[in-house]
Design brief:
Strand content: over 45%
Order of helices and strands: HEHEEEEEEEEEEEE
Number of domains: 1
Number of strands: 13
Structural class: mainly beta
Helix content: under 10%
Distance between the termini: 38 Å
Strand order of the largest sheet: 1-8-9-10-11-12-13-2-3-4-5-6-7
Shape: globular
Number of helices: 2
Oligomer: single chain
């Protein structure tokens, strides 16, 4: 019973869209925009392709805070001129075993990774995914080197502009694959996000500051490697 109650509380708070200032959010699809730009070569995009699965059918399963979990599957890769879009569908696991009373649509995830102009941009539509306050966000930018910094302006779910100071803070090699740690820190508040992005896999961990009741703490999720990847059948 205690576990079900905790799950219901977490789902309720995520569904309400509480931000770091305790305000209630509504849906918004305004794009984030970078405030720094430059001439990005096709070579930069090629480096970014290596960060994501090479073909359709890849499945990610993530586990996280308070028994949270979600899964996603790469359904299609579409290339149009100099833009490549990875179309992903998924769902958040119902931690209440159906006792929340919410329909399947509340748990669905529609997500895209867009590689264009030397960046990977995440665009998502979801209700209770334990992810960014922003539905459109530049996840990483070339060159893929430690210390690469950029500032982006992204809209949160209420429509407020967030000025995020973004930086690749670490580049390491694990089991023959490069892994990048990227931090995003709000210029005007304590809000932050941290991702690790691995070659051939994409996002392997995510964390952000959460402040539902005035007491901030970190929540997030990480990849369940044993259950992720391509179907071996």
């Amino acid at each position: 019973m205690k576990q079900i109650l905790l799950a219901a509380i977490i789902i309720g708070l995520l569904l309400s869209g509480c931000t770091i200032d305790g305000k209630i959010n509504i849906n918004l699809n305004n794009p984030g925009t970078a405030t720094e730009s430059g001439n990005i070569s096709q070579n930069a995009n090629e480096a970014l392709f290596k960060l994501l699965p090479e073909k359709e059918g890849y499945t990610w399963i993530y586990n996280g805070f308070a028994e949270y979990g979600h899964q996603m599957t790469l359904e299609e890769i579409v290339t149009d001129n100099e833009k490549t879009t990875y179309i992903i569908k998924g769902k958040v696991f119902d931690m209440s075993d159906g006792e929340s009373g919410m329909g399947e649509e509340h748990f669905s995830i529609d997500l895209k990774y867009i590689i264009q102009n030397g960046s990977i941009i995440q665009v998502k539509k979801e209700n209770i995914m334990m992810d960014s306050e922003m539905d459109r966000l530049e996840l990483i930018r070339a060159p893929l080197v430690e210390g690469n910094k950029w500032t982006q302006v992204a809209a949160d779910k209420k429509g407020n502009e967030r000025h995020l100071n973004s930086e690749i803070t670490k580049v390491e090699e694990l089991d023959g694959k490069k892994v990048y740690t990227v931090e995003y820190r709000d210029r005007d508040s304590d809000y932050y996000e941290i991702r690790t992005i691995e070659e051939g896999t994409g996002v392997v961990s995510f964390a952000r500051l959460w402040n539902p009741d005035g007491e901030a703490f970190e929540i997030g999720y990480s990849l369940y490697r044993e259950m992720s990847g391509y179907n071996k059948d």
